[in-house]
Design a protein that fits this description.
Distance between the termini: 58 Å
Structural class: mainly alpha
Number of domains: 2
Strand content: under 5%
Oligomer: single chain
Helix content: 55-70%
CATH class of the largest domain: Mainly Alpha
CATH superfamily of the largest domain: RNA polymerase sigma factor, region 2, helix turn helix motif
Number of helices: 9
Number of strands: 0
Radius of gyration: 20 Å
Order of helices and strands: HHHHHHHHH
CATH topology of the largest domain: Rna Polymerase Sigma Factor, Chain: A
């Protein structure tokens, strides 16, 4: 597949290779579809990307690998759009999270009744968790039902707003709030049981 190259790429290639950084050369080679460069970029960034994917697909290795492959396909086909402004890792992370959201939107089981949060249903999530390790806490989070897990991860780890979550998962903003509230309630209960 031949990619259309943008002006930034053409300008970048007009400078001599000795003036380019190793990173810029790697990106240029990937855009030029050099397989060895694409493999190197994948080897560098895939482990962190896979970690993000596994937060959503912790118990489904096949889906996680499918999402990772889809994400890197998008990364390689959109690489000419990277402007070298801002962290490359952040640019990749955004593509990975959006790919996860696409997968979740297509594959989450739609519940029969959409849940909505009423004003008096807010759960106080201030539970002392000093005795729970980070690893144990992540294991507890991964026991959430898939919709609650997706909303919780997008809200807490990716810092999406409820509007962004609603758009990403085809929910209403109120449904997003309800799922987050339900996730917090379930987590509080599980942490309380764990701490006893």
């Amino acid at each position: 597949m031949i990619q259309a190259l943008n002006i930034n790429y053409l300008l970048a290639n007009s400078t001599s290779n000795s003036q380019k950084s190793e990173f810029e050369l790697l990106i240029s080679d990937c855009i030029a579809q050099k397989r060895s460069a694409q493999r190197k970029l994948y080897d560098i960034y895939a482990p962190a990307a896979y970690g993000v994917v596994k937060r959503y697909m912790y118990d489904n290795d096949q889906a996680a690998q499918e999402i990772l492959n889809d994400a890197f396909f998008k990364i390689f086909t959109k690489l000419d759009q990277y402007t070298f402004q801002g962290a490359f890792e952040g640019w990749i992370r955004k593509i990975v999270v959006n790919t996860v959201a696409d997968y979740l939107r297509k594959n989450l089981k739609k519940e029969q009744h959409k849940q909505e949060l009423k004003n008096d249903e807010y759960v106080d999530d201030s539970t002392p968790i000093d005795n729970v390790s980070h690893k144990e806490l992540l294991k507890i989070v991964q026991t959430l039902p898939e919709v609650q897990l997706a909303v919780f991860n997008l809200y807490v780890f990716e810092q999406f707003s409820h509007k962004e979550i609603a758009n990403a998962l085809s929910l209403s903003e109120n449904n997003s709030r309800w799922y987050l509230n339900d996730a917090r309630k379930r987590l509080k209960e599980k942490i309380n049981v764990y701490m006893k």
